[in-house]
Amino acid sequence: MRSVRTTSGDIETAAVAVCCGVWSPRIAKMAGATIPLIPTVHQMISVGPIPLFADTVGEIAYPIIRDMDTNMYERQHGGDIEVGFLRASPDHREPRRDPLDRGVRAVATEMPFTQDDFDPQLQDALELMPVLLGDERVGVRYAINGLSR
Ligand SMILES: Cc1cc2nc3c(=O)[nH]c(=O)nc-3n(C[C@H](O)[C@H](O)[C@H](O)COP(=O)(O)OP(=O)(O)OC[C@H]3O[C@@H](n4cnc5c(N)ncnc54)[C@H](O)[C@@H]3O)c2cc1C
Prior knowledge:
alpha+beta; D-Amino Acid Oxidase, Chain A, domain 2; 3 helices; binds flavin-adenine dinucleotide
C-alpha cells in the first residue's frame, strides 16, 4: 500500500492531489514526479478611495475590464480599483520560502513591488481610465509583485 509521509505521520492512500500552488512542482519532485507549472510574476496595485465606488455595496458592482492588448485588467475591489498586469514575456520566479516557515510574517507569494516595471502599464491604465485613476484624490494604497502560475 502506498502512503504519504507528513510531519504528522504516514497517510496510506492510492492517490494524492497536489494542491500546493506555486510550490506544487517541489512537492511532485519529492515523489519523483513532475508538475509542469512555472511561477510567474503578476504585478498588481490597488488605487483608492474611488469616489464612484463610495456607495457600492459589496466587493464588485462594476464590470471587470480585461485589456488583452496590454495584458492588463482593472477591477473594483470594494472602494478601490485594482490594476493588474501579467507580462507577455513572463518573469519566472521561485517562491522565496517554504509557506510553512511560520518564522516569517511576509506572504510567501508576495514580493516587493518594482515600480519601474509597472510604469508603462500605469500609463496604459491611465489612458484607459483617466477619470478614475487620474483623480488627484486617489492614491496607490497597496502594490505587490505577486507570484501566480
Ligand atoms: C496579484 C494576484 C492577483 C490574482 N488575482 C486573481 C483573480 O482575480 N482571480 C483568480 O482566479 N486568480 C487570481 N490570482 C491567482 C490565484 O491567486 C491563484 O490562481 C490561486 O490562489 C491558486 O490556488 P491554489 O489553491 O492552486 O494555490 P494557493 O492559493 O497558492 O494555495 C496553495 C496552498 O498550499 C500550501 N502549501 C504549499 N506547500 C505546502 C506544503 N509542503 N505542505 C502544506 N501546505 C503547503 C500553501 O501554504 C498554500 O496555502 C491572482 C494572483 C496574484 C498573485
